Amino acid sequence: MTIQRKLWRSCGIGAASTLAFGLFSVGAANADTFVPLPGGDITKVLSDGTVVNIKLVGESADINPSMGATPAHRNAWVSGSAQVTVSGDGGGKIFPGYTVGCQVNIAGGGVTGGAEGAQAPPNADGTPGASEAGADVGGELSLGPGQARSFYILDLEMPDDYGNESHKTRNAFKGGSGSVTWADETIGLSGCGGYAQARSFVSVEVETDNVISWVTLWGQPFSLG
Asked: Which of 28, 48, 186, 224 could form a disulfide with 196 if both were Cys (CB 3.0 to 4.6 A apart)?
C-alpha cells in the first residue's frame, strides 16, 4: 500500500476547514467513483469526569478500482477532518489513519497485521495497539486473502528532546480542542485479487491531571472494488 501526500494537509488547534476534491479519470473503463462518507461522532466520559468528543466530518473517498490495468491493483484518494474537544481545557494527541483489508471483514475495527508508525493503530476496543518503533509511515503494501493492515496518515517532522530529527504520527493539542484535516491522501493496494475494503479511524490519547486514556472513533467501511 503506497501512501503519498497529495495537495495539502492542515494540522492545528481548534476547528479546521475541510476541502474535498472529486477526481475523475478519462475513459469509462477506468472511471473513478466518488463516494461521500458519513464520518462519525463519539463522546466518552473518562473516569475523572473529563468529557471527550471526537467528530469525523467531510469524509470522502475517490476510488479507482484498477490501478496498473489489473484487478489486483486498487487506488483511492481519501479526505476528511478529525475534530476533537476535551472539557476543562484539556489536551491530547490525535492519531488519524486507515485500515485496509483484502477479503476480510474489517467492520469490527480490530485487525491483524502491523502498523506503519511508532504507535500501532488501535485495537477493536479503542485501546492503543502495540508499539512498533522503527517502522515507517507509508511504503508499499501487498495484501493477500484474509489479510489486513493499518497505517497513520501523519508524518510530522520535528526535533526531539536532543535536537535531532524525528517523525511523529500524531498532532498534539492543548486548550480544549484540536484538529487534523487531510485531502486526497492516496491509498494504493496491490496483490488483492478479491474484494477489498478500507475504513478510517481517529484515535485520541487524552491526558489530564488524574488520568491518561484513549478514545477511538471508527469511520464507515467502504469498498475499494
From this structure: 224
Cα–Cα distance for residue pair 53/21, rounded to 1 Å: 27
% of the chain exceeding 90 in pLDDT: 36
* Helix/strand/coil (H/E/C) assignment for every residue in 96-123: EEEEEEECCCCCCCCCCCCEECCCCCCC
CATH of domain 8-16+32-223: 2.60.40.1650
Q: What is the pTM of this model?
A: 0.76
Query: What is the distance between the alpha carbons of residues 222 and 74, in angstroms, rounded to a whole number?
Result: 13
Q: What is the pLDDT of residues 114-145, one digit of tens each?
A: 333 334 555 544 444 543 332 234 435 778 88
Query: How far apart are the C-alpha atoms of 201 and 148, rounded to whole Å?
Result: 14
User: What is the Cα–Cα distance from 23 to 48, expressed in whole angstroms?
Assistant: 46
